[in-house]
Specification:
Low-confidence stretches: 160-167
Order of helices and strands: HHHEHHEHH
Oligomer: single chain
Largest sheet: 2 strands, antiparallel
Number of helices: 7
Distance between the termini: 23 Å
Number of strands: 2
Radius of gyration: 19 Å
Structural class: mainly alpha
Shape: flat
Length: 167
């Protein structure tokens, strides 16, 4: 994943200065290795509906052949589309996000919510796009707008139980 973190504003910068000038904060462990492995295994068990999997593939394929998704203007912007690693990254990240949201199934919104961070470094923009100041996040937003998510309906008897407290 690539997570863009912008510079803090003046107010936040001043708060950082005040906090770090005295006693710098100390990191506190929140998970031990066993808990982390439990969460990783739980994320691997999160269900991905076939329609959601298809949505993920269509998002990635749109980076490789934008014209097929009525995004012909992106042909000149994207030099190299996302690889299968983007597909795998979207699935694993959406699973983890669904788990964090208390579900054992992925919704299209989970995919959309991780798409920028997962795909932004998996797409190579053309020289002209870079010279024009095009950002990969803008390209991904266009993809998310153009590639329709599926409508997945879960029946009440399929709703997941809540996460165990030990996780």
């Amino acid at each position: 994943m690539k997570v863009n973190v912008s510079y803090p504003g003046a107010h936040d910068e001043l708060q950082i200065l005040r906090r770090m000038s005295v006693d710098p904060p100390e990191a506190a462990q929140i998970l031990d290795p066993a808990q982390l492995m439990t969460l990783q295994r739980a994320a691997e068990e999160v269900s991905v509906h076939e329609l959601v999997a298809d949505y993920i593939v269509r998002l990635v394929m749109a980076t490789r052949d934008p014209a097929q998704y009525r995004l012909g203007d992106l042909r000149e912007v994207i030099e190299i589309g996302a690889s299968p690693r983007a597909t795998l990254g979207l699935v694993s990240s959406a699973r983890a996000f669904a788990l964090l949201r208390g579900r054992d199934y992925v919704l299209p919104e989970d995919v959309r919510d991780v798409a920028r961070e997962v795909m932004s470094h998996r797409i190579v923009l053309s020289f002209d796009a870079l010279a024009d100041g095009v950002d990969t996040v803008e390209v991904i937003d266009q993809l998310l707008t153009a590639v329709p998510p599926p409508r997945v309906v879960w029946k009440n008897d399929q709703m997941p139980p809540s996460l165990p407290e030990s996780v």
